[in-house]
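Render this sequence as a predicted structure.
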Amino acid sequence: MIRRTFGQIVEMVEGTGSSGSDAGLIIAGVSKDTRTIEPGNLYIPLIGDRFDGHHFVQDAFDKGASASLWQKDHADAPAGAPLIFVDDTLAALQQLARAYAAKLQVRIIGVTGSNGKTTTKDMVAAVMSTSFNVHKTIGNYNNHIGLPLTMLQLSEDTEVAVLEMGMSGRGEIQFLSELAGPEAVIITNIGESHLLQLGSREEIARAKTEILHGLKPGGLFVYNGDEPLIEQTVSEMKLDKEIRSVRFGLQTTNDYYPTEMEMSGEGTSFAVNAVSGVSFRIPLLGRHNVVNALAVIALAQRWGISADRIADGLQTMQLTGMRIEMIKAKSGLTILNDAYNASPTSMRAAIQLLHELKGYGRKFVVLGDMLELGPRAADFHREIGELLDPAEIGHIYVFGPLAKHIAEEARKRYAPDRVHTFDDKRELIDALTAEVAAEDVVLVKGSRGMRLEQVVLGLQEGANLGI
């Protein structure tokens, strides 16, 4: 993490130190939350619609903060405290991150996409860690606040930083990419997430390809060649710098594509056209995760990492939770926990995975609303209902007003007693727990706002957990 003197940080943020402050005071790390602040931190009092961190500056000092930023338009600054006065505390945080990273000998990889970016980030970090000292975005720190905080967590000896970049509208990824200055970027895919804000997949593609604005000249662009919108929007950008490109995907027209795949146990094995003599295995199920792995293999090979090391990194990767995580309940039931988020693209991938799984008694799905899809939300849910195959998936449980459209469409092919709708999560858990057996498998998937991880916990324990 950043370790600088008070005086150095004043210069980095182009601020003004409070009178009498010790320029040699050591600051180690930053925090925007007094609940997690650590001794020696620089406190960042951010301002939101319903909060103002300036109200907690004294609390930060009481808990051991070495110094704090203070926005100049705020009165009543604590007297005698080591403060750094700035025009805007958020802009100062971002400037501090930019200045700090610029002094490090670190190669930055940016990862974005509608689906799979967190899993891909985890894969990149695992593979890069076989050859470099690596830091990656923790959790979902992928926006205009989280990304600079991640950059400030880098140690002086970090060689590679893998940064996830998210967005909800145009201009956001361009800002993040220009802030970080990546040497390589990955776009996993273009889906339907943020249709509500952006209106079309074309606009989503334009928002995602903004990541190229910050890519260093001569940098590497790794993208999903199965998605024509990426190349279309890149051609519109008229970039004034040279970049190197490599395509991955399922189609054989890509530079990297799988030549065989096999799911077994809790993972997927596969071979790649561009890598001879080495087979790969990931501790994840599904061809969509193989596609994500192809992006990582393509990048790693171009950074000089051997195929054997790439294979080792992929096999031993550590995943961020709730992304098609296979769980065994106390009863023996197998749960596919994909409750972290949902869009039509990721929902289709998860259902395809369930269709392809073998060796289980019956297959169940618990599907919740897919949020932020705009005026076509009901249609997208009906399309998911069309995908459900009665020959493969025995019972359907849906939760939420939008998910009822899934059930309505599925009932055109399913017997009435195999499709169940719920408005109460506790009732869903009770009904499902009473139905499933040890040899069965259940996929649980929905948008984060539906909190379907509560269903997963209920299935694990065989109880409703007081929900």
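Summary. The longest strand covers residues 275-282. The mean pLDDT is 94.
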